[in-house]
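tool=predict chain=A
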Amino acid sequence: MRHGKHGMKSIVFALALVMLPVLPLVAVAQQANTAAKVLIVYHSVTGHTRSMAEAVQKGAQSIKGIDVLLRSVQEATKEDVLAADAIIIGTPVYNANVAPEVQTFINSWPFEGAPLRNRLGAAFVSAGGISAGEEATQLSVLRSMLIYGMIVVGGPHWTQPFGASAVVSEKPFRDGDGKVDDHFLEKAEALGRHIATLARNWNGVADTAD
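tool=predict ok
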């Protein structure tokens, strides 16, 4: 019986020695399996930017391994921002610029200690007319993100290099029912897929990146 107990202890000890090198790999695998978090925040009065936000959400949710949170600027919290691996901001174009509500939200982000450093950032907008300031507004959002040390990302194709945008009040895109044209919703969805894919691949790497 004594020999049996001694033999069992020897086996357990040997198994422990074998498992020691494997444990760090298990920890890394568990970290890699943690879902990346994508936060989509928008401001919308007429519903156009909200429609774009929902299309971005749809695209992001189509990627496995992603937790997607959709919030208006009034609903989004500091905790939401800090928990996100990627932040996608949507704003209507106001006089070729960001809506004040959106800029106020961005200005509220924590700055000291650079807690948003190496997080992914992207932008989408809705505007009344063609060449009404869409790209200028997208770039304004992206510039603000750069101040926080974020890594800004555009769309997946050269036709949407700054994110996604919609024209809602000028022909041929103006629609009597007030809906956003499917063409622009598809671009918003593509942006969501693109950012979610990058966030999934970037998850776990951003904390160690220089």
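The mean pLDDT is 87. The helical segments are 2-19, 23-32, 48-61, 78-83, 100-107, 134-147, 182-202.
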